[in-house]
Batch of 4 targets.
Target 1
Amino acid sequence: MAISMIIPLFFLFTFFSALLFLRRRHLHRRLRLPPGSFGLPFVGETLQLISAYKSDNPEPFIDQRVNRYGPIFTTHVFGESTVFSADPETNRFILMNEGKLFECSYPGSISNLLGKHSLLLMKGALHKRMHSLTMSFANSSIIKDHLLLDIDRLIRFNLDSWTDRVFLMDEAKKITFDLTVKQLMSFDPGEWSETLRKEYVLVIEGFFTLPIPLFSTTYRRAIKARRKVAEALTLIVRQRRKGEKKNDMLGALLASGDHFSDEQIVDFMLALLVAGYETTSTIMTLAVKFLTETPLALAQLKEEHDQIRAKKGNPEEPLEWTDYKSMTFTQCVVNETLRVANIIGGIFRRAMTDINIKGYTIPKGWKVFASFRAVHLNPDHFKDARTFNPWRWQSNSETSSPGNVYTPFGGGPRLCPGYELSRVVLSVFLHRFVTRYSWFPAEEDKIVFFPTTRTQKKYPILVKCRGCQAK
Ligand SMILES: *[C@@H]1O[C@H](CO)[C@@H](O)[C@H](O)[C@H]1NC(C)=O
Ligand SMILES: *[C@@H]1O[C@H](CO)[C@@H](O)[C@H](O)[C@H]1NC(C)=O
């Protein structure tokens, strides 16, 4: 491009930036927007946000703004003006007014890759029906009577193959993928599921790219992988339409009076596989990491699980619901891991109309981010909020109003349907893991929070089976 063109472009850019700046200042005064700063033109504060969440201590990004402006503030990230809430009451208001005042809003990459018939993108009455259908496949009575046995069996099956050095994050992903495939369509793990899983990895990598195939090879690869996954799932759906009826999620979708098309069913299952796969495996890995770094908690957890095993005698004997219910300290570990790790750190929504809250206006069309993380890590709500301390859940004080300040699974109409299932999976995994292996980290590894919560090196550990020496 000739230099003569760049100079006018530069002036144009400066001019529009100045205009934008003045308009925003005007907006702030007229509408009583929450206070805040929009940062640089166009990029806003996106770079500060990303660099904070790419570190193992992202808290300063929100802390600084909360200190300056209060728990509801305005910023400009990912190309849009966004109201951040670090306030539990406001977060609850946002969750409870889903579909009335706020609607969900995801980046183009995620909605393209998940597909429009996924639970995440559905709205209104259809969402309500599908949400409760999903819940009815993951509620506690179903887990107790049907799923627990498979969960226990598939976790044991996966643990069998561990020797020496394992990447815990990878192994946990295999487990959660196998479990989800089993639950959705009754398949046991094998070559088919492992091939499918490899494609899934590519799809998920595409979630946080620019959804423009020309610019991003990762996105191109993700689109291709999505097509392959959809083809594989479509085949299964077609077979099952003709073949036998089974009591699984796919069976329920096929039997539903809604007469869903193949495409609808495939989108729906494809997205549930993402949901079941990513989050639970991360929480499994982080629980082990936190426990490794908190030896007292690990010792107490081991004792709880050794006692359960001792009562059973044979290590092959399956876990029962009463065993799960007897894991009281484990439940504290589960809650504390969810609180500190915040796999879903918060949710983006869009204001459907001008909304007045706490004396401010959120203008129609603006983005809102309800930060659960900011609440979970706020010392006003949890003492020593930034340390992993499972014992806090033993005292009543912390749990007096957990519904308001503790929302690891969100809430309202979009409450995570897998909230109970993921707790059970994590508990059974911890049971089998600590009774079978001892381990130590093979390398230093740290947690990062962008684009998703994960450890940088997939948490490599060296495992040794407990009591093997005796053989
Ligand atoms: C769980 O869902 C099943 C249907 O799948 C239903 O019959 C049962 O009542 C539900 N149980 C609970 C505790 O909600
Ligand atoms: C864990 O958190 C849930 C809320 O999600 C609460 O109902 C439960 O009592 C907590 N468990 C313990 C052991 O405090």
Target 2
Amino acid sequence: MNYNVNEKGYYGDFGGAYIPEMLYPNVAELRENYLKISTEYSFKKEFDDLLKVYVGRPTPLYFAKRLSEKYNTKIYLKREDLCHTGAHKVNNTIGQILLAKRLGKSRIIAETGAGQHGVATATVCALMGIECIVYMGEVDIKRQAPNVARMKMLGAEVRSAKSGSKTLKDATNEAIRDWINNPIKTHYIIGSVVGPHPYPDMVARFQSVISEETKWQLQEQEGREYPDHVIACVGGGSNAAGLYYHYLNDKRVNIIAVEAAGKGINTGHSAATSALGKEGIIHGSKTLLMQTQDGQITEPYSISAGLDYPGIGPMHAHLYRSKRAEFISIPDQEAMDWGLTLSQMEGIIPAIETAHAFAVLDIRKFNPKEIIVFNCSGRGDKDLDTYIEYFKL
Ligand SMILES: *Cc1c(COP(=O)(O)O)cnc(C)c1O
């Protein structure tokens, strides 16, 4: 079984590029160039240097002593929350901005839901002095005021998407329209392992630095490169893809993916795509997504904005269908409780997205000798208002 993308842009049954004809040239330019450029020595050097001096990599692989004692197993945290801007997303935006520069692009567009990807994109545009336009649903602009302010401070223009439900999918439509109208000088930075081929593979490769580092860090600390389990939350799936990447073909490593069950899988208010999703097309790729009987995309729900997405990337759909990965969904309440537990047991306040992953410890039993690596995808500063309201802090 192959878990990486094939030459046609598919992961098993999923992936491909289902796009309007007017986007063919843009996507073809990317497809024909992304591997050649991103594997060149000069690209890799600039990417690695920026990850080191700007993002702050390598991020620590931290042995969580108190948590390990309580659950009687060996628990490590890959500290992506310590990346500049507070999460893993910047690994990808650094990679894509370097690629855009080499393709001669002078204008960047992106879409964002909660604003985290918008901030990561605005950050690298400021770093490179490149024009940045971020599309965001009108409703999300109101809900996510601090991130809108961050993007503006970083010099980005935030454009409001006023159609439909005025949320992420409408912002995506606006971004695609913009790209069709500006095919020559504009690059579209997608923020997760979603979208038409080559985006899922490209983003997974940029995020794969997470497992590349984990391998040598585990070697140093445990005398072997591989853990028994890797666990990550899945919105679109980029932080998970980064942690899984170098272990995909290593069957000694069990892969666990954690989705948001929201108010409960069967309440109509969830984002548990693997449990509820059916095959369909979203953002230009064939994957699993939550939809009605007649194929309309269902509005997802999760208390964490970053997991509030109606699909999963095609790599994850394939990991699910081929049973290479175990999928678990965690409701809001358990995730919120883990936000508090991780804070008070390890002194690490996680993003609510991240907190979902840890709830696996209450569901699955692990042996004392087993090594588990959790991806600590982001820090909780952005979620403080939600924590305050929920726990009446
Ligand atoms: C955006 C985000 C996620 C979800 O995105 P993926 O592409 O699934 O990684 C998870 N954690 C944090 C902290 C995020 O900001």
Target 3
Amino acid sequence: MKLRDNARFSTVCIHAGQEPDPSTGAIITPIYQTSTYVQEALGRHKGYEYGRTHNPTRSALEANLAAIENGRAAFAFASGMAATGAVMTLLKAGDHVVVTDNTYGGTYRLFERVLRKYELDFTYVDTSDLQAIEAAIRPATRMLFLETPTNPTLRLTDLGASCQIAHAHDVIVVVDNTFASPAIQRPIDFGADIVVHSTTKFLNGHSDSVGGIVVAVRDVHIEWLKFVQNAEGAILGPMDSWLVLRGTKTLPIRMERHNANTQVLAEYLAGHPKVSRVHYPGLPTHPQHALACRQMKGFGGLISFELGSLERARTLLDSVRLMALAESLGGVETLISHPASMTHASVPPERRLQIGLTEDMVRVSVGIEDVDDLKEDLAQALERV
Ligand SMILES: *Cc1c(COP(=O)(O)O)cnc(C)c1O
């Protein structure tokens, strides 16, 4: 069961980082639910000393995700936010970061409410505009923090072009790849230095674990991240590592179905008289459809659409039966939400308008159910609008 260097994506997802368990031959990496390891003699051990520093289940997941994202090493954290928090320790007081303006709300909160206290400075720009990125870079800029597609307006950033701009100024590029997943886009292939994920979403894929991962390529970053993972200690536990490891095995086929279902619903909604606007990179009407075709393999499982008023959005959300009203995304089951009052409630109204997040907008994380059942559910709910 040796994985060849040229193994293809689905094969890598299933096998990378995973050897039959050395003590029993178990094909699935066991959940090593232990805090410490017995040492044979003073100074003689098997590479494992203490559970915060080393855990075989976590190591297997880290090797698996490093391969999946085409990085050189990965580090698993207790949540997506813990992962991003660890990445930001690469910076020091006085450093400046350029950030996608429509970044995940928790990322914005971490940067503004926590990291500003440590004298890091942030500028938020529409990174779909390459000139805006270039214009925001200053002598103190050390990092470009990108998210593409964004939530919930599904705006894209050109990864290759923005990496070129950043690197020309000696600025490292970090990409939050949670929304796309590596089955759809691999930022490192476009030049990114670091990728972060909330594994809570598509990577785990079954809505039963919270976690995060950082994937890196450069030695200095790898060394520091390994150090800080142990020093700060916000590690992913063995049970959650095992769940995500199970999730990544089916990532490629899950994403295929997410993509296919979402495309069908996007086209259905775009042709519906009660829907005023649909945001989905897979529709030719999406302003960056050409970029999506170049940069993404499939257009993802997230869609948002506008219904004309808050009242109409509320009626739809109250009328769906199969789709569950809930935050989060990326699971096998379809979730529907109202970003303005749920995920983005803490974003000031004027900022929401700036990023195109309107009150009548509904977001769906399309699951992998039979698409006809999903369509019928939307149809009966739209009838009541
Ligand atoms: C959910 C999410 C996060 C945060 O991840 P947690 O696991 O909830 O801490 C970060 N970025 C994006 C894009 C997300 O969707």
Target 4
Amino acid sequence: MFVWSLLTILPLLVAAAPASTKEEAIWDRLGNLSPYHPAPVPSGMNVELPGDCKVEQIMYLGRHGSRYPLASELVYIQNLTYKLGNASAAVARAKLPKSMQFLKEGYRTTLGHDDLTAPGRLELFKHGVNFRLKYPQFNATSILAGGQDRVIESAQWFANGYYGRTWPNISSTVFSEIAENNVTVSWITPMDTCPKWDYNYGNNATIKWGSIYLPPITKRLNSLLPGVNLTDNDTHGALYACAYDLAAYDVSPWCDVFTTSEIQNFEYELDLLMDGAFGYNLPGDMGPLLGSLYVHTLIDRFSNSSAEPVYLEFGHDTTIDMALTALGLAKDTPPLSATGPVNPNRKFRTSTQVPFAAQMLWEKIACSSTFHGPQIRLVLNDAPFPLSTCAQSKTDKTYGTCSFDAFVAANNFSTSVTWGDSAWNSTCGNPGF
Ligand SMILES: *[C@@H]1O[C@H](CO)[C@@H](O)[C@H](O)[C@H]1NC(C)=O
Ligand SMILES: *[C@@H]1O[C@H](CO)[C@@H](O)[C@H](O)[C@H]1NC(C)=O
Ligand SMILES: *[C@@H]1O[C@H](CO)[C@@H](O)[C@H](O)[C@H]1NC(C)=O
Ligand SMILES: *[C@@H]1O[C@H](CO)[C@@H](O)[C@H](O)[C@H]1NC(C)=O
Ligand SMILES: *[C@@H]1O[C@H](CO)[C@@H](O)[C@H](O)[C@H]1NC(C)=O
Ligand SMILES: *[C@@H]1O[C@H](CO)[C@@H](O)[C@H](O)[C@H]1NC(C)=O
Ligand SMILES: *[C@@H]1O[C@H](CO)[C@@H](O)[C@H](O)[C@H]1NC(C)=O
Ligand SMILES: *[C@@H]1O[C@H](CO)[C@@H](O)[C@H](O)[C@H]1NC(C)=O
Ligand SMILES: *[C@@H]1O[C@H](CO)[C@@H](O)[C@H](O)[C@H]1NC(C)=O
Ligand SMILES: *[C@@H]1O[C@H](CO)[C@@H](O)[C@H](O)[C@H]1NC(C)=O
Ligand SMILES: *[C@@H]1O[C@H](CO)[C@@H](O)[C@H](O)[C@H]1NC(C)=O
């Protein structure tokens, strides 16, 4: 009886055991600030294609790896440390739970801002190695990076992993950059040439949601730290400290300070920001319109027998979210609300869709028996992502495929849009160049 129950319980213990390290336990809850981790494979889906299928063409869009906070976010963390530093006597007197004892030693921050971190370099290097191992039949000959330092550096680390350190000297390899500014049409940063686009569409939602979920946390922390007088911005800083210490050092004392539901509310804030500024919550058809530039390019390339077999391109979480929006994937009905409630089953999930070093990988596939005609599949962060707008058969649902023709038909909005046409100008305002 004893032996029997132990054997029964063992697999459960393994399944329920906390991930091996602290960051793994939380890495799928920090939205687009999560370190890279593979997305869960939806139940009933196969990662491997049938044996008679062959990948013929690939379009890969990589997000830059883990980075320091943006300068605008770093201020929250710094202000928190000043507040705690100036109140060191009150901190010394406070009766703190184990998870907050680290404050007695004084918490300082040396985080930089904006640039790729050491774990970010490793993420991209590994992706380059894994891409080589996964697709030995291809030799990619070009890499395109959005013209921002952390994106360029990410593409370089990928190249080191993929080609080896002599890659700048491989004559067949072209490394190019596309500027990220308001006079360069780019499917990596399409919002920059859409004058009516405004970051505040997302930011305003996070301010509203922050005014709802932050005060109870601030109150709880202040009850543990009498005399310190933390503000909601300081609480926000502590949440950022958790995410960005992880991004820079793989570990943060702050993550254990918060309850699971507090972290989930922070995760929701990050989803609201991305959905609001780069997704479905943009006004009218602005979200799909911006993402259409990417989808249009994908369809053009996969329809063109003279196109390159492999495209390796590097950009942002925003690039991926706008593309998903044009594709009609990860769409919530009703839309995410800035006043909650937090739907735990929402489809728009930055934690699994656009973590640091996210990988949106499109495969064009030919099979000798399982399917007739060319197929397409999206592998997002190492897991097939169901193409719900064009999947038809049970086999489609198992492998995440669609016939390429059905995919093209489902995305006729995207192929109907070209930058600077009347649809673009009426949604975005005339770009004026
Ligand atoms: C940080 O502190 C400065 C000086 O007190 C203040 O002006 C600023 O608004 C604070 N920023 C944040 C994000 O709390
Ligand atoms: C006290 O606060 C000021 C400004 O807010 C900051 O410059 C200073 O470093 C803080 N002192 C400590 C010990 O953190
Ligand atoms: C890829 O390039 C390497 C080195 O130049 C070469 O040895 C290999 O045969 C190439 N593979 C393919 C599939 O072209
Ligand atoms: C590229 O080739 C030049 C000239 O042979 C050499 O000096 C340089 O070290 C090489 N760079 C790399 C990264 O291999
Ligand atoms: C681009 O931005 C600059 C400065 O931010 C501004 O002066 C310029 O008018 C903008 N150009 C266009 C075409 O939007
Ligand atoms: C964001 O909120 C501010 C202040 O309420 C408002 O003036 C502005 O129009 C809003 N911006 C957007 C894009 O919603
Ligand atoms: C606590 O901070 C709030 C907001 O900054 C301020 O209004 C209040 O006066 C402060 N209270 C104390 C006791 O410092
Ligand atoms: C919180 O930070 C925001 C953004 O920097 C700032 O506008 C606001 O004044 C800050 N609030 C407080 C109470 O410091
Ligand atoms: C097909 O791809 C080739 C090579 O990139 C390009 O020169 C050509 O213009 C493309 N054709 C179409 C119809 O897009
Ligand atoms: C896309 O196709 C659907 C169904 O055939 C059609 O109703 C719709 O008007 C088309 N949209 C565009 C933008 O062509
Ligand atoms: C849209 O705006 C661009 C840039 O100002 C202009 O060149 C183009 O002619 C406009 N398109 C239409 C259909 O008016």
